[in-house]
Each structure stands twice: as structure tokens, then as C-alpha cells.
TrEMBL record:
Residues 50-266 form the THIF-type NAD/FAD binding fold domain. This is UBA/THIF-type NAD/FAD binding fold. SUPFAM superfamilies: Activating enzymes of the ubiquitin-like proteins. GO terms for molecular function: tRNA threonylcarbamoyladenosine dehydratase; ubiquitin-like modifier activating enzyme activity. It comes from the Bacteria. One of its GO terms (biological process) is cyclic threonylcarbamoyladenosine biosynthetic process.
Amino acid sequence: MSEVRASVECCVCDGMLSWSDQLTIARQYSVSVAYIEAVALERGILPARYQRNRNMLNCRDQLALFSSHIAVVGCGGLGGYIIEELARIGVGHLTVIDPDFFEEHNLNRQILSTPANLGHDKVAVAAHRVAEINPAVTVTPVVKALSRTNGCGLLAGAQVVVDGLDNIDTRLELSEVCESLELPLVHGAIAGWYGHVTSQMPGDKSLDTLYGQKQRPKGIEGSLGNPSFTPSLIASVQVAEVIKILLNHGEPLRHRLFTIDLLDMECIETPL
């Protein structure tokens, strides 16, 4: 609507649109704040919430992120931080997939887990959290376990998939589905003081190389434990990989396994 565009342009200050103006215009014209964000970005106007992004991401980059659709499989230790960071940086559509609900043992490390959320579906809590921190982001919550059977349907429309899972079998199934859909997959795993990340592009089969034919219900986190700090670190590396892939910036961790040892403060890169 030309009236919306004119209203957005009238409110610009230093090339930016404030959240209060974004909200006021949306209410005035009975449209979503996501619509106002799209109008602003398409006209080279930066929503002010992203102003600390602009020394590394220009308005065109921000529009590309807003126009992107990312699927996050697993909304626990890794997935919660991944969802939080993708929403805050301005990725416009998130599909979040997890069959589980929050339990007391999640409270030590999962950012979406609180005593009040115990017993609630993880994806529903994720959707509520995103609505609180960035209402311009669309969230599609899916209370299902991804498998070879339903994976293609669950990941439909996504441009990049992020692995927030905690078992090898499902990760290998996710890898297979991503391969069939020709989707990049950003894999992360944690255990105790350690974690690793790699980005698998179509045709790479990096997870097959990494895990081979190991068929175990859980990874080594079952024996090494899950502290509060490892998930946030590894999730942040995964989010950086997603942004690099979406914007074609830098060099993703393709054919490389980036391992972090927080106990001895070492980073190791291994070819895959």
C-alpha cells in the first residue's frame, strides 16, 4: 500500500525506523509488523532493532535474512539458543521441530526451559519466546519427531536446516532427508566441555563420514553430561554458519569439523 510506504518514509530517522513507529504504523493500517519490516527493508530503511548489525550486515543483507526460511530440528540445549539468535538477528521464518516437552533435567542448560514451562511442548514455548523478542519473525511450530518418512514434508520451504538433535540415528536420518532435498545442513553436537560444528552441503555426506555406521540412541553427552555453557557456544557457531550460507559471506565449515575443547581451551579443525 502506498499509504504504508509513505508513513514508513515519514518516520525515518538516520536511515532507521524505530520499533514504536513500526508498531504504530502496523496498527494504523491493520497489518502485521512483519509487513512493515518488509516495506522498510525493501526501501533501504533499517528497522532500528538491527542497528548494531549494520557495521557487518547492510540493509540488503538484512532483507535477505528477513526473507529467509530456516528449519531448526530439536529445540532443547542447542536448539533453544539457535532459535533465540536467529530471531534476534532477523531471520524472517523459522520452522521449529521437536516432539518433546520440558522436563526438570532441562533446567540447567536449555534457555527456553523455566520452572513455569515444565510440561509444555518445546516448540510452543519457542514460538512464544520469539513472539516476545521479535514479533516480525514467523514461527511454524511442529510437535513431531523428524524421520525419513516425514522429513521431506516437515522441511518443505526451508533454505537451510540446523541440527539441534541429541542422538546419532536421527541425525543420520536428518542428513539423508537434507540430501534428498538438496538442503544445506548445519550440524552441531555437544558433550561436557566439548563440542563440534560442521556444515554439510548437498552431495557432501559429511555426517556419514563423521558417524559412519554407528547406531546408538544417544551421543557421548549421555556419559559426559551437558553443562550450561557448551550449548550456547556451539549454537552460536552454528548460527554464524547459517548466516554465512544464507548471505554467501566468508567460508563455511564445509568438509571441515571444527572442534572446541573448553577444558584445555583448544580449537581443532579436522578435514572431513
